[in-house]
Amino acid sequence: MAILKIARMGHPVLRRPADPVADPTAPEIKRLVADMLETLADAGGVGLAAPQVHVPLRVVIFEVPPHRAGESGPVPMTHLVNPVIEPLDEEKLLGWEACLSVPGLTGVVPRWRHIRYRGTTPEGETVEREAHDFHARVVQHECDHLDGTLYPQRMTDLSLLSFVEEMKHGAPPIQATGKPGED
């Protein structure tokens, strides 16, 4: 396993749609996921997409830790290849997001509150789940990377883009589902 370099906003790998993976169970996909897990553990955060480590493939990893789970409960570390998202209602929630590829910044992003997602694990199992609130936000954030989208592109009010360091002086008065600097 290896800790991989994280691409930052502006790098071309983050601007293009990632390629589908022909064989989710291929040894190179399992190695990639292992390296992504080590990279995420080193960097901190709750999710990582393959394009963020300079690999333009449709692979994501994420979890919902107990302290972020809310009513839906925690979600163990999940590895998905070729994930697909389907919104299940029209409601969107505003929430704070940060990103390992946009270091030092945080912003308020609208996301679908309730989604269904599915994908294949590197072991060849199909995962299909419904997600609400923070769980849904994390999945949407990571899958956006697969389409060449970073969270600032989703923001509807750029006055709510801030340096994490400045948030120590108090977050803007907004109802948000996430915490500044965590994602």
TrEMBL record:
Single Gene Ontology BP annotation: translation
By what name is this protein known?
A: Peptide deformylase
Organism equals Hypericibacter adhaerens
Q: Tell me the superkingdom of the source.
A: Bacteria
- What cofactor does this protein call for? Fe(2+)
The family database entries (Gene3D superfamilies) matched by this protein are listed as: Peptide deformylase (3.90.45.10)
Q: Which reaction does it catalyse?
A: N-terminal N-formyl-L-methionyl-[peptide] + H2O = N-terminal L-methionyl-[peptide] + formate
Which NCBIfam families does the record match to this protein? pept_deformyl (TIGR00079), PRK00150.1-3 (NF001159)
